[in-house]
Write a structure and sequence with these properties.
Layout: H1 3-14, H2 20-23, E1 27-31, E2 35-42, H3 55-73, E3 79-90, E4 97-108, E5 112-120, E6 126-138
Length: 140
């Protein structure tokens, strides 16, 4: 792993402290030229009452990785990144293991960005497909 890649993942994992990402045990695990990947354990902590992964937890994972990706691929020291719209299609249930969220850029505008986030299980089977729009607001 390159030093640059390791540093990006270290920063992403440090900003999780005292946030929903830490509560859900979301961890950033890989970054590339135009993507960021995070994972989250599937346990009763993120289940809905019938024992499968809650869609809200899935969406929280998707928004977390998409927003972090915007921060990584924009100048995070100059902009605040906020999610302004998210849509999710849940296509497979999962009861245990890990889910992985890969945020890939679809559109990188100066102000708004569009991300596709694929949530997969440990066998790379699609669990949810999400679309996130973020906005970069200048820090003053």
């Amino acid at each position: 792993m390159s030093d640059h890649k390791a540093k990006i993942l270290e920063v992403c994992n440090q900003i999780r402290k005292n946030t929903l990402m830490e509560t859900l045990d979301i961890e950033y695990v890989d970054v590339g030229e135009n993507f960021l990947i995070a994972r989250m354990p599937v346990s009763p902590k993120v289940h809905q009452p019938d024992g499968v992964l809650h869609g809200g937890a899935t969406v929280a994972l998707a928004e977390s990785v998409g927003s972090a990706a915007s921060y990584v691929f924009l100048d995070g020291s100059s902009f605040f990144v906020r999610g302004i719209e998210i849509a999710a299609n849940h296509v497979k249930s999962i009861r245990e293991g890990w889910v992985y969220a890969k945020a890939s850029i679809v559109h990188k505008g100066r102000t708004t960005q569009l991300w596709e986030i694929r949530i997969t299980d440990e066998e790379d089977r699609l669990v949810s497909l999400c679309k996130l729009t973020t906005i970069a607001l200048p820090k003053k």
